[in-house]
From TrEMBL:
It comes from Rummeliibacillus stabekisii. This is DNA methylase. It comes from the Bacteria. GO terms for biological process: methylation. Residues 97-288 form the DNA methylase adenine-specific domain. The lineage of its organism: Bacteria, Bacillati, Bacillota, Bacilli, Bacillales. Gene3D superfamilies: Vaccinia Virus protein VP39. Keywords: Methyltransferase, Transferase. One of its GO terms (molecular function) is N-methyltransferase activity. Pfam families: N6_Mtase, YtxK_like.
Amino acid sequence: METIEVLFSFIDKETEKHAESDQSTYLDGLLITLNRWLDVEIKPEVEPTKEEIRKAIQLAILKGMRQSSQPNHQMTPDSLGLLVGYFVEQFFEKEIKEDHQITMLDPAIGTANLLMTVMNLLGDKIEGFGIEIDELLIQIAASSAELEGQPLSLYLQDALENLMIDPVDAVICDLPVGYYPNEEIAKQYDVKADEGMTYAHHLFIEQSLRYTKDGGYLFFLVPDHLFESEQSQLLNKMIAKTAWIQAVVQLPDTLFSSKAHAKSLFVLQKKVDGGKAIKEVLLAKVPNMKNMQALELFFAKVRKWKKENKA
């Protein structure tokens, strides 16, 4: 068996045991398993890499989420995480080459799979920060990051309230989509709807820009219909005031259960004094990710765009 299979089998067996004995959910049992592993009370028979640990834990989380009825228990697939990581690598190529540490925030971190995917992809170049309102998910994220040996600071709170972090170099986020129920908090934002509740994903974009350094980059997984809603005019106005759009990359339909759930990668740069908008925004569609030839042509197009538009 491959290392990931052996590791998942180890995690799954222990998790099922704890969930059954405590009469709790699989995810609760998973947290106990990860913490016992950290405390060296239990140990797998293999010596896995950081990425093998992440993938095995991801499989266990997916199993737990399939058994959970909570709508906020969802995970960004690996394919999307790796694609986001590729774009982070392109936009921060200079910093990576010069071995500069990049601070990165995920304001809706969940179990941290998206951020950990990018951090593992880029080696030891990222110091991560995450915000999450779900106590179980953030505890799983903390244990996962510790097992993977990745520097990750986590905060249990509503990400749309004031944050106790300094501005970061980059933000990545698979945006929570839907209405935000706290209208008192929403009133503090430029994208607040004139009537009724405001879209949470609009608020997350504005909040993320507040906590990004001038000139920093933001990588959002957004619904394809982001700019087609009745509130999109407010979002457009806020973005035009604070950021420059860098890229809008449509993701393959095959990655989503239906067209209604399809997403795009939306890349922004926070405005900086003395800076200016790029000559041409990257507008592209990712081909079927199983078609390696088409995918290489897509990456070549991205590199060509970067050469012509980025300093």
